[in-house]
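Q: What would this chain look like folded?
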Amino acid sequence: MHSPWDKVRTLRQAWLKLMVVLPHERGKGIMKLTNHTALIEAGIETRFGPEWPGRRCGAKTRSGGACQNPAIKGRDRCKLHGGLSTGPRTPEGKARAAAAHTKHGRRSAAHVEKVKFINGELRRITYELKRDGLIP
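A: My prediction, written as structure tokens:
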């Protein structure tokens, strides 16, 4: 009698046999290269394999080749290379994006001005204390 986990175990073993692990990545459990035809023969479908007929992104990668991710519907690039977002188009949207661009407020003009004022006051106080001989 077979348990439901037998099929899972069999598929996992097939998957591990089909994966090629680079020697320096072996201890990390990161699997880099996949044999797609062997996966398909084992019954594990690959969604965007080498024979996929759809449009590819085609953006130039750091290795010099073309990106093989599928292009977003109605766009020329994948979600990683700018196909997902078009950015603001209306003047109101552009103004909203410019106003919301600060991530944390530590570099806003008001904050920079306040920091400059505080540092100036500290320099002035330190100078006066040194002049009066209260600190070396």
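The CA atoms of residues 53 and 70 lie 10 Å apart.
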